[in-house]
Design a protein that fits this description.
Layout (H helix, E strand, L loop, with lengths): L8 E7 L5 H18 L19 E9 L4 E11 L4 E9 L8 H15 L4 E7 L3 H9 L3 E2 L12 E7 L2
Parallel strand pairs: 4-5
Antiparallel strand pairs: 1-2, 2-3, 3-4, 5-7, 6-7
Length: 166
């Protein structure tokens, strides 16, 4: 009799500093993905980790764990303060090999919860036309278009979204 063994895969979301090795590696992968999608030769600037630290921010790394203890960082996202009531989602990224498992949605929901716990009532984000899966995720989660803001507000391929958290 032949048996097939199955490995359980568990998603674990871990609050960490953006300066952690796993977070920085995922941030670089995010930057590479953006460069590829938008045809840029210039990498995104590495973000200052401090605005993503409590009490005004948060950063989360998603790990996939397999039976036997193996753990692999596969995604990340963070929030930082814009004003007393509004925070911004940054560096939402999931490794291409791990996509399609609901990791981005889990990260988004976790960071919305973190934002509420930090006292924010609104979350804004910026993405772009070359990231249709991101736009679909945000729209399916209740985000609506808002006026452009931040570094890319005047870029024609930039799209900004926002959502009340309460």
């Amino acid at each position: 009799m032949q048996r097939t063994l199955r490995c359980a895969v568990v998603l674990r979301l871990v609050s960490t500093s953006l300066s952690s090795p796993e977070a920085r590696a995922l941030e670089r992968a995010c930057s590479d993905d953006i460069m590829r999608r938008y045809g840029s030769d210039e990498p995104e600037e590495e973000l200052d980790a401090a605005p993503f630290d409590p009490p005004t921010g948060a950063f989360v790394v998603a790990f996939l764990e397999v039976d036997g203890g193996d753990s692999m960082p596969v995604g990340c996202a963070g929030i930082r303060r814009l004003d007393d009531t509004t925070c911004e989602l940054k560096r939402m990224y999931v490794d291409p090999d791990a996509r399609g498992r609901g990791i981005a949605r889990s990260l988004l929901e976790r960071l919305e919860d973190e934002a509420v716990a930090l006292g924010y009532t609104t979350l804004w984000l910026e993405t772009g036309t070359e990231q249709p899966e991101a736009i679909a995720l945000y729209e399916s989660h209740g985000y609506e278009p808002i006026a452009g803001f931040g570094r890319y507000k005047d870029e024609p391929k930039s799209r900004s979204f926002g959502r009340p958290l309460t």
